Amino acid sequence: MTSLAPLEPVTLTGKYVELQPLSRAHEEGLIAAVKDGELWNLWYTSIPRPEGMAAEIERRLGLQAAGSMLPFTVIDPASGRIVGMTTYMNIDLAGPRVEIGSTWYARSVQRSPLNTEAKLLLLSHAFDRLGCLAVEFRTHFFNHQSRRAIERLGAKLDGILRCHQRTPNGALRDTCVYSIVAAEWPTVRQHLEYKLGVPQR
Fold this sequence. Notes:
Blueprint: E1 12-13, E2 18-21, H1 27-35, H2 53-65, E3 69-76, E4 81-92, E5 97-105, H3 113-129, E6 134-140, H4 144-153, E7 156-166, E8 172-181, H5 185-195
Parallel strand pairs: 5-6
Antiparallel strand pairs: 1-2, 2-3, 3-4, 4-5, 6-8, 7-8
């Protein structure tokens, strides 16, 4: 496959997580989720405050309309509760290549199988259905929790973009860029399935 048609909204469902296309109707649930841990107080992230959630939803939906993002609302299927957001972003149709990013989860579901399975679903769709050459992850140099989580997936550090962008408070951000390439995907998939207790092929 040499190119992608514009990405269409899709629901990705697993045992521990469901990823639904982002909707304005999700605002109330997303506000409750972001209050679980007051996630906006992490200085090295750009997680929306409760009063900014509507604007964040509009921003993501605008990027979807422009073809550069496909945003999801993260659902805990056991409770039906909204617990976060994630996206395909920086979509390169010519590759094809995508970044998985702009992700945050309520504190109560962090360090649970939910995130591992969400990444497995997103990676499976990107490589197996969309035919991506590579999937990228980016995070703040000082976001050590995120960096460890990305490395546990099996992604490799491509490099660090120095003074890459400014954070909302004006500070300069160094961005760590990781990726998984198509040739690595079968091994990464086996690793993630093993972590989730999926019977090995």
